[in-house]
Design brief:
The chain is mostly helical and 125 residues long. The protein has helices at residues 2-10, 12-47, 66-94, 111-124; strands at residues 57-59, 62-64. The chain is 70% helix and 5% strand. A hairpin with a 2-residue loop joins strand 1 (57-59) and strand 2.
Length: 125
Amino acid sequence: MLKEFKKFIARGNVLDMAVGVIVGGAFSAIITSLVNNIFTPIIGLILGGVDFSNLSIKFKDAEIMYGAFIQSVIDFLIVAFCLFIVVKVVNKVMHPKKEEKVPEKKIEKTPELKTLEEIRDLLKK
């Protein structure tokens, strides 16, 4: 069993996944800071400081905090958008588009095409 565990841990996929999780955790701090310190204040200015987190409905003894859910959805969308922008910028920096020149293929003219071109030229005159 120990040998199987060693084999499992030594596989490249497990190590890649571990590195991904660690880097993802560190990257999470960057995205959280971007959202909390830059995008949220800007959106707050646009929306006039609307805060949904205090909205609730009282039903008998239970209080349903639907505003907190709405706020969580909005926060998720902001984080997802920021992550999209960051990934897009990183991809543009890491993989710049190279314009490939496609060599022009010289089309061989068939006898029919030559005849049609002659007819066209005669009609132009």
